[in-house]
Amino acid sequence: MNLIDDFVSQFKKDSIIYEGMKYKAAQLVESSLMESGVLAITSSRVKDPNRLYDKILSRNERKQYKKDSDIFQDIVDLIGIRIALYFPNDIDKIDAIIRNLFDIHSIKEFPSKSKDNRAKNDQVYTQRFPGYCATHYRVYLKKLDFTSSIPATIIEIQVASLLMHAWAEVEHDLVYKQKKGEVSRDEYESLDEINGLVIAGEVSLQRLQRISELRITSANKPFRNHYQLATFIYDKLDKGSNRPPLGDVETLFRLFQSINRLTPAKIENDLEKIDLTEVTPVSEQLINIHSDSNAKISNFIFKTTMQKKQQDLLSSEDDATIGAFLKAWIKLERRLNELWKNGGKGDAYLSPKEASALLSQYDINNNLLSSYTQLRTIRNRLIHGNEIPNNVLLQKYIIQIEEISNFVTRLS
After folding, report:
1. What's the Cα-to-Cα distance from 71 to each of 106, 137, 164, 281, 408, rounded to whole Å?
2. Is 97 helix (H, G, I), strand (E, B) or coil?
3. Does domain 2-206 have CATH number 3.30.460.10?
4. pTM
5. pLDDT tens sequence across 104-113
């Protein structure tokens, strides 16, 4: 008992750290769902200390905890996030998002092995429907913004349809917690019946989503919002398990809206140019296709991303240096494209991998080739607002870009 008391007491003392971790994880999930065009309701919580105490006490009868680490490894929902999807078909999109945002500890699929529910009078009621259908991800934050004195903590992310979550709440309180006493056979039967209706509702929502997608695609009209755009792109992608995440479709939508490129035909043409073996999100690849050699689009993406992330405005000196960096990069990309075309490729799109391969064909210094790869990463992080180098570093990068650009010019 002392072990359990001490664990819960320390949990209370560390509550501000757990709240910080919960806030960061929930913020990552919510912003990614919004950017990726996934309709869902999210909620998050840190385990209530009183409920935690009861849970540990109950599980200790079977587990017989010996030390704190035993409890830590066994209790996987100290921090919990719930994602309630409007459309069950979006579960695959969520999978890619979670794998991109977090380090995965384990994944648990429901329903697990079916079991009989036993009513008070010992009459066995066997469920006709599968019960709770969901996916639970147990994950770790990839990076903390603060120094944590607690061990790496598992965060449980529960993903199911909005309808299923509602049913699960009722079933959990009635059966698992038995808030209203022992559950009768009739109540089990009613829960099973409602579960069947929920599953039927999910099937209807899946069909509705497919019908809507077909209508949007066949109309060949500009997409009205980034939700429609995200659905279309996802539907056109290879459904393999290793495909990259969708990424920030919201910013992509703003860009395509500004350059009049929001019709299905134009987007399908762009999708043929992306590399599905890359870890780079699809939206980022599509943005780079148009921004790599266009200063106006590069600035548009940079400013849009800064505004979305509510970054402070840069000083005029910083702004000028970033402009010089982008101008130097675009000059380099245009020269690479000219070299590509002169090699008989015509107007074919020069992908990042092909650009590196093109440079490696010539007698280029290995350090220079390595610099090109690093500079492209720096450029992408800058454009998409992930990292803004300081002035000194940017000036150094500009010199490196110009050195590679001069090399390419001598080849032409």
Report:
1. 17, 19, 29, 37, 60
2. helix
3. yes
4. 0.79
5. 999 999 987 5
